[in-house]
């Protein structure tokens, strides 16, 4: 995505929406000191340009049987462009994989995986993760405590 020319008002809108995705347009307009129509137009532009990618509810993971977290380091047997694309496409189909990041260093990917418990993870590892395209080896690290897990992005003040 190309760098967009966002102004101070855009950043104020983004901060408010990030803090409360259900904020009404009337309240958002008031908080960013715009009238409703220009504010709504800015929000639509930010959505169209892909700056605002969507809206969601923050859920309590344990309440929906997703309280167990592991980090999985994945090493692939091959890292050609086609093989990476195949792995990436397959990972996107696994709902328990909350994030997948390509890494530089001693392994190729880091996965954040959420399941109900260790037994559920063990089944997922054996039946799904280890069978993803081109997986050569995995290393699993069980998360004992989540100290910080933000989805809110820090944004600099802009002119």
UniProtKB/TrEMBL annotation:
One cellular component term from this protein's GO annotations in UniProt: cytosol
PANTHER family: LEUCINE-RESPONSIVE REGULATORY PROTEIN
GO BP field: alanine catabolic process; regulation of DNA-templated transcription; response to L-leucine
Protein name: Winged helix-turn-helix transcriptional regulator
SUPFAM superfamilies reported in the protein's UniProt record: Dimeric alpha+beta barrel, Winged helix' DNA-binding domain
Coiled coil location: none
Pfam families given in the database record: AsnC_trans_reg, HTH_24
Natural source organism: Sneathiella chungangensis
Domain (HTH asnC-type): residue spans on this chain: 6-69
SMART domains reported for this sequence: HTH_ASNC (SM00344)
Transmembrane segments: none
Keyword terms: Activator, DNA-binding, Transcription, Transcription regulation
Molecular function in Gene Ontology: sequence-specific DNA binding
InterPro entries noted in UniProt: ArsR-like_HTH, AsnC-type_HTH_dom, Dimeric_a/b-barrel, Tscrpt_reg_AsnC-like, Tscrpt_reg_AsnC/Lrp_C, Tscrpt_reg_HTH_AsnC-type_CS, WH-like_DNA-bd_sf, WH_DNA-bd_sf
Domain of life per record: Bacteria
PROSITE patterns registered for this protein in UniProt: HTH_ASNC_1, HTH_ASNC_2
Signal peptide start and end residues: none
């Amino acid at each position: 995505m190309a760098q967009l020319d966002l102004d101070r008002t855009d950043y104020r809108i983004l901060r408010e929406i990030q803090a409360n995705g259900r904020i009404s347009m009337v309240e958002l307009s008031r908080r960013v000191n715009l009238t409703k129509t220009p504010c709504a137009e800015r929000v639509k532009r930010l959505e169209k340009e892909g700056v605002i990618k969507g809206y969601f509810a923050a859920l309590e993971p344990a309440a929906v049987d997703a309280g167990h977290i592991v980090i999985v380091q994945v090493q692939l047997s091959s890292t050609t462009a086609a093989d990476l694309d195949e792995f990436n496409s397959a990972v996107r189909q696994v709902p328990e994989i909350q994030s997948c990041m390509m890494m530089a260093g001693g392994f190729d990917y880091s996965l954040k995986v959420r399941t109900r418990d260790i037994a559920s993870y063990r089944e997922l590892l054996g039946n799904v993760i280890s069978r993803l395209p081109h997986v050569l080896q995995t290393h699993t690290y069980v998360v004992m405590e989540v100290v910080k897990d933000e989805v809110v992005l820090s944004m600099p003040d802009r002119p």
